[in-house]
């Protein structure tokens, strides 16, 4: 087929484009800005225009949900009988044709998908892998494999994960988020329950027993649809981790049990309790597909995380720069606690960029509480994504809840770096956090000219 993709620069669309291209389709695309992801020679035009569709006899237009339905390029496709489908529809068509391992959850699905993909790749299963971020150990955010397994991170934000029918469905957690789509927490639980019940006949459901939302899904889902596996801390679940020790500088070591019997040691380079849980989900899925624990543990020992997940960007003048995608208070707390365990003797100076006005309005207090775990926190203006401004909702609303630790910061590199000058000292960690472009601030810090140093007590 000849396929054009709008919003090609995004994580999900770029990964899908590689898979469609790998299946022998002719794929092109466009985006409003230069793509962040390697598109592997797939042409991406900058901007939107009906002219993008006039040079080939396209069969299909795949649209990101962020694209306005009245966009002139979309209108042209309708007028010329080019079939229009969403990213999730296109992905589900590929996924549902294979043995699908679908990883869902409000938090942790990218890392869990990355871990699962790495295990299957190194276990010579030749899987297809689709992840919402670049995975350095894989070298991409998508792999088009010829084997039977399709491992995919599935998005709950707009309910589109209900289009998928996994043979193995993983739910890492079912927290309340995306308040523009799910008006109540119960709405979200019901959606995750439908996802669980949408799995293929006799499909396996893998759930985190440490999450209240996932436990609610467990109570509500149909028990006769197939095997249900639960994982958590201790040895009272199908898969468990106990005797956990955290390594200085990052990572952890834990003893692992299966059906109450100890099966070995798991050593991770990635930090945090949440990543131990993520690894249990990946190990459980691999075990159901014939991959022994010993093999999974050996592979995960060499897992170095996904892009923008506690990613070490570099060090300058004794300051370690780390970037993380966390933007929901639960994620923020997990990341900050993991950082505290990994670097107990270093101050954490946090720069946070709130994501969406609706999320900030709903969770301002919880965000402020999470930021207070850091030694000092700065909040940038809200990254709106596709949302319109909500009157009265600003970053100041977060800062006002703990003015002793949290201050607002304008997103202007020169002024922002000047403000940080009075805080950052040799030995500190500069942690940038958020789903927008906050990572650019950490990169700007690393690129600073040493000749600009002015304050002898600061890193400048």
Search tags:
10-stranded mixed beta sheet, alpha/beta, about 450 residues, disordered C terminus, single chain, about 25% strand, 13 helices, 6-stranded mixed beta sheet
From the helix content, strand content and strand pairing, which structural class follows? alpha/beta
**Beta strand %:** 15-25%
Average pLDDT metric: 90
* Poorly predicted tracts of residues: 451-460
What is the alpha-carbon Rg in Å?
A: 22 Å
Number of strands: 21
Q: What is the general shape?
A: globular
CA(first)-CA(last) distance: 55 Å
Portion in helices: 25-40%
SS element count, helices: 13
Largest sheet: 10 strands, mixed
Strand order of the largest sheet: 8-7-9-6-10-11-12-13-14-15
Summarize this entry quickly.
The chain has 460 residues and is of the alpha/beta class. The protein has helices spanning 11-22, 72-79, 87-95, 109-122, 185-197, 212-220, 273-288, 293-300, 329-342, 357-371, 395-399, 413-421, 439-446, and strands spanning 2-6, 26-31, 43-46, 60-63, 83-86, 99-104, 128-135, 140-143, 149-153, 168-171, 204-208, 228-233, 239-246, 252-258, 261-268, 311-316, 319-324, 348-352, 376-379, 406-408, 429-433.
């Amino acid at each position: 087929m000849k396929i054009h993709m709008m919003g090609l620069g995004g994580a999900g669309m770029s990964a899908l484009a590689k898979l469609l291209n790998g299946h022998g389709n002719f794929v092109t695309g466009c985006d409003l800005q230069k793509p962040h992801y390697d598109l592997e020679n797939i042409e991406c035009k900058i901007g939107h225009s009906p002219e993008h569709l006039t040079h080939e006899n396209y069969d299909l237009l795949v649209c990101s949900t962020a694209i306005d339905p009245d966009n002139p390029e979309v209108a042209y496709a309708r007028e010329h009988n080019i079939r229009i489908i969403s990213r999730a529809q296109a992905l589900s068509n590929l996924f549902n044709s294979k043995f699908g391992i679908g990883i869902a959850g409000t938090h942790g699905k990218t890392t869990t998908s990355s871990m699962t993909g790495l295990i299957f790749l190194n276990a010579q299963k030749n899987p297809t892998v689709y992840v919402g971020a670049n995975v350095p150990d894989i070298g991409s955010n998508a792999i088009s494999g010829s084997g039977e397994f399709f491992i995919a991170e599935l998005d709950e934000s707009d309910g589109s994960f209900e289009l998928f029918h996994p043979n193995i469905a993983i739910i890492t957690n079912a927290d309340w988020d995306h308040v523009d789509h799910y008006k109540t927490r119960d709405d979200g639980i019901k959606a995750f329950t439908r996802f669980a019940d949408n799995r293929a006949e006799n499909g396996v459901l893998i759930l985190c027993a440490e999450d209240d939302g996932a436990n609610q899904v467990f109570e509500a889902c149909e028990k006769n649809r197939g095997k249900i596996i639960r994982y958590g801390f201790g040895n009272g679940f199908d898969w468990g981790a106990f005797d956990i020790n955290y390594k200085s500088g990052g990572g952890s070591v834990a003893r692992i049990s299966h059906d109450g019997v100890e099966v070995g040691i798991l050593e991770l380079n990635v930090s945090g309790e949440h990543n131990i849980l993520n690894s249990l989900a990946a190990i459980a899925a691999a075990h159901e597909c014939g991959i022994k624990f010993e093999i999974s543990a050996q592979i995960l020992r060499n897992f170095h995380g996904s892009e923008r997940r506690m990613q070490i960007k570099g060090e300058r003048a004794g300051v370690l720069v780390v970037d993380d995608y966390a933007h929901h208070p639960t994620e923020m707390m997990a990341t900050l606690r993991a950082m505290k365990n990994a670097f107990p003797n270093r101050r954490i100076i946090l720069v946070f960029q709130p994501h969406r006005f609706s999320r900030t309005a709903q969770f301002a207090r919880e965000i402020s509480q999470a930021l207070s775990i850091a030694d000092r926190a700065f909040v940038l203006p809200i990254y709106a994504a596709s949302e319109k401004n909500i009157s009265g909702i600003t970053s100041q609303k977060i800062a006002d809840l703990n003015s002793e630790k949290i201050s607002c910061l304008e997103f202007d590199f020169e002024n922002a770096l000047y403000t940080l000058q009075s805080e950052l000292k040799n030995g500190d960690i500069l942690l940038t956090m958020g789903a927008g472009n906050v990572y650019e601030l950490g990169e700007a810090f690393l690129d600073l000219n040493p000749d600009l140093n002015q304050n002898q007590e600061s890193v400048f």
